[in-house]
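Internal QA ticket QA-208
Title: Verify multi-chain structure generation after dependency bump
Assignee: T.L.

Test input:
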Amino acid sequence: MAEKDSGFVGVFDSGVGGLTVLGCLVAELPHERFVFFGDSAHAPYGDKRPEEVLALSRRIAASLVNEGAKALVIACNTATSVAAQALRTEYPTIPVIGVEPALKPATLAPQHRRILVMATAATLRLGKFQRLEDRWGADSEVIEVPCVGLADLIEKGDPASPAIHELLERYLGPWRGKVDSVVLGCTHYPLVCDQIREVMGDVPLYDGGEGTARETRRRLEAAGLLAPDSQAGSVELRSSIDTPDELALYQRIFELARR
Ligand code: DGL
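Actual output:
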């Protein structure tokens, strides 16, 4: 008899950034089936009004759940800040896991007094980040750097482009040598960590991908939804720009994110 299908985990972001989280999810949960949706047609989310991000997130979540998603991972800091609460209310029987800037591990490292947080303007402005900072930032100096335009440039698919280097130099250059660590508070930013190091030197970088993957495992386990070890894992990549070129770009970035 064929084994019962354990369902798939739906993962979404405004675009290619969520592939960095997907890479961590696949490493942590190799037997799961993942369907990733990147909303590149509407990226970036970070410059949009919260109502717009909420409406876009709701639409994506509804289509994944209607298709049979057993859990949702919001692989986007901006969409998590805006929509996680609403989606948890709307889908009470489905684990909804979000991401957040990895401020907690950065503040727990003993030598990290001055912590620079790079994120979208929306993530830094919204109450969720302010609460995170109140909770974990009390003994540190947290420097918030909204990186307007950066996710948009990364979306274009050339992480080594001079335009990205220029923007990073503009936002981060003034802080070179003056901070103890950098938190990558947008899931697009791990794709340019080499360029961030070029500007900032050898400071520790923190991103939330691995923590999110561990949390997803915990939540699936608690709900009895973990795929059996006998199941072969799989990944399906989808984009709201549904062209062969865009999907090839997703595939290339996913391979980069898994390294
Ligand atoms: N990757 C997203 C995040 O983590 C959003 C980037 C954007 O679309 O502005 O915030």
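Spot checks passed. The mean pLDDT is 95.
Status: verified.
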